[in-house]
């Protein structure tokens, strides 16, 4: 639950907090996203998965923008909003944490049912 709250805070910060420039916003969000990973995951596979998902989701978003399906109001770097990969990274860490908690709960329920029989 805390991981979801931190992710919502990072997402809210990217939308509502005014920064002097987009580089400052991107660096702040990158630091917060890595802090989210460090606090709730700390695994190499989680970091790799987060980077991979952030890269693939940014590429898919770029393809949508290139094909005219989606349009940014003001792109930062190579027609990409520079904060977008940070949000995808934090989201993938959060979803991984939720999935891990659900799998742990399911294993406990199955173990309890087998002991009752």
Automatic annotation (TrEMBL):
One of its GO terms (cellular component) is SREBP-SCAP-Insig complex. It is found in: Endoplasmic reticulum membrane. InterPro entries: INSIG_fam. Keywords: Cholesterol metabolism, Endoplasmic reticulum, Lipid metabolism, Lipid-binding, Membrane, Steroid metabolism, Sterol metabolism, Thioester bond, Transmembrane, Transmembrane helix. It is a multi-pass membrane protein. GO terms for molecular function: lipid binding. Pfam families: INSIG. The chain crosses the membrane at residues 25-40, 47-66, 78-98. GO terms for biological process: cellular response to insulin stimulus; cholesterol biosynthetic process; SREBP signaling pathway; SREBP-SCAP complex retention in endoplasmic reticulum. It comes from the Eukaryota. Interacts with SCAP; interaction is direct and only takes place in the presence of sterols; it prevents interaction between SCAP and the coat protein complex II (COPII). Associates with the SCAP-SREBP complex (composed of SCAP and SREBF1/SREBP1 or SREBF2/SREBP2); association is mediated via its interaction with SCAP and only takes place in the presence of sterols. Interacts with RNF139. Interacts with RNF145. PANTHER family: INSULIN-INDUCED GENE 1 (PTHR15301), INSULIN-INDUCED GENE 2 PROTEIN (PTHR15301:SF10). Mediates feedback control of cholesterol synthesis. Belongs to the INSIG family. This is Insulin-induced gene protein. It comes from Dipodomys ordii.
């Amino acid at each position: 639950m805390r991981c979801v709250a931190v992710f919502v805070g990072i997402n809210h910060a990217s939308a509502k907090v005014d920064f002097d420039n987009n580089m400052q916003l991107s660096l702040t969000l990158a630091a917060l996203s890595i802090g989210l990973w460090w606090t709730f995951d700390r695994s190499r596979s989680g970091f790799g998965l987060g980077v991979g998902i952030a890269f693939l989701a940014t590429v898919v978003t770029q393809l949508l923008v290139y094909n005219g399906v989606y349009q940014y109001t003001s792109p930062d770097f190579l027609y990409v909003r520079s904060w977008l990969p940070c949000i995808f990274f934090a989201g993938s860490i959060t979803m991984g944490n939720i999935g891990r908690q659900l799998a742990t709960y399911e294993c406990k329920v199955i173990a309890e049912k087998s002991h009752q029989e």
